[in-house]
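Appendix B. Worked example

We walk through a single record from start to finish. Start with the input: the chain for TetR/AcrR family transcriptional regulator, Brevibacterium aurantiacum, length 236.
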Amino acid sequence: MAETTQIDAQQAPNDSEGAVSGRHDSVRPKLRADAADNRARILAAAREIIAERGIEVPMTAIARRAGVGAATLFRRFPDRRSLIAEVFATQLTHCESVLEEAAADPDPWHGFCTFVEDLGRMQIEDRGFTEAFLSAFSEDAGIDEKRLRAEAVFADLVERAQNSGGLRPEFNPSDLLLIFLANGGISEAPPEHAHDLSRRLIAYLLQSFEANGQRAGRSLPGPSRMGIGEVFAAPQ
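Next comes the structure step. The output line below is what the pipeline stores for this chain.
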């Protein structure tokens, strides 16, 4: 880097200096390509291993999965928060679009139910999603504007669903955290059962949220094939 700076600083380079500069120019695209490749490998490895093991996976484990050194990883992402934010950028963008779509539903109770169901599914598909979602919309994550926007949209959806008579008046927007925590435990279940268990739990929760015990046209999914013995035998 220092050599390139000295060359660039010359006012009238001679032919040999021009040759050196040309060699540096030819190297730069390769360096940029290598850096982009390393970044892509780190992000792919991080998405994969966080989905498997959760958000607290060591940064060194991500580097090993990506096939890069720890120094390379920390050059690209100086701390865990910056890496997690990048890893979950797509999921969080999708989460925002799901919320906006739910808010645009002419039936606010239906929109509320759809939003909760979609978030539950996303949570089960990626073990790190719960922690990433909650941290991304926390005051410490550095994205207050996005957090406040999401909170406002969801609070408005809740109010409209309550005014429509679909959602019970006791529901508070902060109760979304209860849904996340309850459904998050199911992500620890064997993968072949997790989706069925989650759908049934979410259906139970939505029924409990309905005003006057109405059913809103949502039937309860059948019980999981997972037996009681398997529940107690599952790793804690």
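Two observations about the output. The chain has two domains: 32-78, 79-214+226-235. Residues 1-24, 137-142, 228-236 have pLDDT under 50 and may be disordered.
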